[in-house]
């Protein structure tokens, strides 16, 4: 995992800040995170850390949560653009 984050120029603190925001969104919907998968994406040489978070909800609610997290990240100056998070329904 350290090499994945290093390749994307993402620090532990960056990822922790993003996960704090994701937890805030999940709690606002009264949902618990069931699982998460962290992986490195390489899009035309650009490296990104992608976190896929699974929660027990409808697909529509998961989509709404993705929109919410995008808004919160856009307002934050703590999250580098190399971290992406999505919510998925289980």
Largest sheet: 3 strands, mixed
Q: Report Rg.
A: 13 Å
Mean pLDDT: 91
Uncertain spans, ≥5 residues at pLDDT below 50?
none
CATH homologous superfamily annotation: Cation efflux protein, cytoplasmic domain
Sheet with most strands: strand arrangement: 1-2-3
| CA(first)-CA(last) distance | 25 Å
Derived from helix and strand composition plus strand pairing, the structural class reads: alpha+beta
CATH class: Alpha Beta
CATH-derived topology: Alpha-Beta Plaits
Number of helices: 3
**Overall structural domain count:** 1
Report the order of strands and helices: HHEEHE
Question: What is the CATH architecture annotation?
Answer: 2-Layer Sandwich
β-sheet strand percentage: 25-35%
Tally of DSSP β-strands: 3
Task: Report on the architecture of this protein.
This protein has 90 residues and is of the alpha+beta class. Helices cover 44% and strands 31% of the residues. α2 (12-28) packs across α3 (59-75). The chain starts with a helix and ends with a strand.
């Amino acid at each position: 995992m350290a090499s994945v984050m290093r390749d994307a120029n993402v620090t532990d603190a960056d990822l922790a800040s993003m996960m704090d925001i994701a937890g805030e969104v999940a709690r606002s919907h009264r949902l618990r995170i069931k699982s998460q998968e962290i992986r490195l994406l390489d899009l035309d040489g650009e490296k990104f850390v992608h976190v896929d978070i699974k929660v027990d909800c409808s697909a529509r609610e998961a989509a709404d949560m993705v929109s919410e997290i995008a808004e919160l990240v856009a307002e934050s100056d703590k999250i580098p653009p190399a971290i992406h998070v999505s919510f998925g329904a289980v």
